[in-house]
Amino acid sequence: MFLIHNSHEQANLLASALVQVHRVEGHWYTSFQQDLAHTLFLRLLDAEINFSGHPGIEVETLAETLTQASERQELLELLIAFEMLCNPIPETLSRDIDHWANALNINGEILNLARELAQNAITQATTDFYRCNWIGEGDDQSDPVFQDLLKKYGDHAYGLCVTADPDEFARWDNLKHCSQGSLGRSLWEFYQSRGFKLPGELGAGNAALAHHDWIHLIAGYDTTPIGELEVTAFMASSSRSKGATLGFIGAISILETGLLHSFYGADKFGRALSADDGIERIAQAISRGKACNVDPLINLDYFKYADTPLTNIQKAWWS
Questions:
Q1: Confidence of residue 4 (pLDDT cuts 50, 70, 90)
Q2: Which of 178, 195, 248, 270 has its CA at a distance of 20 to 30 angstroms from the CA of residue 76?
Q3: What distances in angstroms separate CA 135 from CA 7, 25, 84, one per listed residue?
């Protein structure tokens, strides 16, 4: 996840790259980009940077300093995250980010998604987003049964129960028998209080999508648009899953600018990040994710801890 550097020298380099790409002739593509950059660098890197006057840097010069592939990937993620704040995405911006990606020899699904959105290839972008982010990683995409569901129901199969599964429903519904205050009982109540269907019910979120509901609960993020941005930001900064960062960047494009459409109905929302205290809340979510002691997405079976008190889980995550 981007913004993991700690030194002021590295922070200044990232800031220089950001203004080089997103500030043209002294002006950012959107004023919100500048506000977001200032808050993120101040809150996460303790770097007070004047983004209206901070000098840029050519990619060829930066490449001499950023030699590690992980550092270059992080930089590209940062540039693309800010690209998602534009709707439509300017052709000049896409071209500049492509130039940086080529110069740094970095490619991947995040860059592919950004290009598809810039070209208004929404159908393909939607498929790639759900196939490659943390939801798609949770599906067994090699399973012939799942592939049949994809052929019959399309992208909805990545995150929704397109057919009823009584056994899966029973697994989640049995959480109501866990003791009061436990992780399992608290998640069951989380669903009931919101009127959400349980995985296994037709039309409910499937187990791959529902995996992040445990994180909603433990980290304390709501299921409002800004809450969804908070939880995806938290996951991106706490998990080694490649799909976690893609999920956060895609969530920005859905919930802030509406570039990407969601079959969960979230595309009707907009400006979730730029409204009210959205910037501060996202910065805090990223910071909390960095401080988390566990990877909430990879190899963590929450059902094993269903009888554990929720407060004990929370203490373990941030002890």
A1: low
A2: 270
A3: 33, 39, 20
